[in-house]
Amino acid sequence: MWLKLKIFFGYTILILLLVFIVYQFRQEQMLRHMLRKEEKKLVTIHRLAEKSYIGLLDLSTHAEIAVTWDDDDLSEYSRKRRGVCDSLQLLK
């Protein structure tokens, strides 16, 4: 009788251990998925900030020669300004 009881408890412990391992594995998968989504979001924000920074630098260097502008230069500056403003709005 005791042997059957020991075997039963042994199998019960093994099954509980297996369930615990599967549960832990699933929790790790969910955490990894959440971290990857967060990482993608941060990478997108970083790229957008970098693009905005480069656009602002381009605008500032382009604006230094504003005295010699003609209509084409003004339209190009306006186009670049709108692009930078759109990038900054997305960051907001």
From TrEMBL:
Q: Where are the transmembrane segments?
A: 6-25
Alphabetical UniProt keywords:
Kinase, Membrane, Transferase, Transmembrane, Transmembrane helix
Q: Which GO terms describe its molecular function?
A: kinase activity
- Protein name as catalogued: Hybrid sensor histidine kinase/response regulator
